[in-house]
Design a protein that fits this description.
Length: 295
């Protein structure tokens, strides 16, 4: 079997999961075969052709503030049982105070319900070897041999794009993992700089874009996200998701969280919104918003 960067596909997967699953029995290109939105509003995530709930569950900083492991797992199980099967995480999502690690928590559900989940994680390092180690670590923690979506996280500038685009670097790595079936789709995320996000779209390598968009940064960024990056991505057939929907509720008075969530679902174009959730009550509230949503 051909090796690249010292790892064959089989070696990479064997080193990543350690779960005793026979490789011959695994169809790496099949994912989310048991996904069920339970009647929630859905959309097609661009050219991926995957049907997703209009709301995805964000499993970052808010999720990691849950102190009790059993409460975190109860929240995940309830979300999945009620149709929220798009789960978004990253290898860096953790809480050093309570020791919570997002991917490890998720893996405790994934190991038994993998085919019910559209599973997305992110890689941050721009160093090829470290990026491979991050991806391997994510697979181990998530207790799976495949990802539905792998995103290059936090695109920042033209210099950043030049780094990840150079020969043998990050774009080449994630593209190879897609070709080899370790991941189904590849994408990128960004918190700002609509011009850089647009440049990434124009490369044509990616299936999906995750972009920060809420009422606050729309005002500070003269709607460039809507005028530049999002239309370009949609025009290229990419799946588009928005994040940071409930920011900056912590610092601005008199902001209604329900209105922020509804706003993120109302933005023309994107296929859905990733909403950070930190309790069973928040999941239930967001499910009510989605079930009763109309733009």
């Amino acid at each position: 079997m051909e090796k690249k960067n010292g790892l064959s596909r089989r070696d990479f997967i064997k080193g990543s999961i350690g779960t005793g699953i026979a490789l011959s029995s695994v169809n790496l290109l099949t994912g989310c075969t048991g996904c069920d939105a339970k009647g929630l509003p859905t959309s097609i995530l661009g050219r991926t052709g995957v049907r997703i709930p209009r709301m995805a569950i964000g499993l970052g900083s808010r999720f990691c503030t849950i102190d009790k492991e059993e409460e975190a797992l109860e929240m995940l199980s309830y979300a999945l049982d009620n149709g929220l099967y798009y789960w978004d995480t990253a290898h860096i999502y953790e809480n050093t105070t309570n020791g919570a690690i997002s991917e490890e928590r998720i893996g405790k559900i994934v190991k038994d319900r993998r085919d019910e989940i559209f599973l997305s994680t992110k890689v941050t390092s721009r160093d090829p070897n470290e990026a491979m180690r991050q991806i391997e670590g994510s697979l181990k923690r998530l207790q799976t041999d495949r990802l539905d979506m792998l995103k290059i996280h936090d695109i920042q500038s033209a210099e950043d794009i030049a780094t990840i685009s150079s020969n043998g670097n990050l774009i080449e790595i994630v593209s190879r993992l897609k070709e080899e079936g370790v991941v189904r789709f590849i994408g990128f995320s960004g918190h700002g700089n609509a011009e850089s996000m647009t440049t990434m779209v124009e490369r044509g390598d990616f299936d999906s874009m995750l972009i920060a968009l809420n009422h606050w940064n729309m005002e500070s960024d003269p709607q460039k996200r809507q005028q530049l990056a999002i239309p370009k991505a949609l025009g290229n057939g990419m799946g588009v998701m928005v994040m940071k929907a409930v920011r900056p509720r912590e610092t601005v008075a008199n902001i209604n969280i329900t209105d922020l969530v509804r706003f993120s679902l109302s933005v023309p174009g994107p296929h859905g919104a990733i909403i950070g959730m930190d309790s069973l009550e928040v999941v239930k509230s967001n499910l009510d918003i989605l079930r009763n949503f109309s733009p």
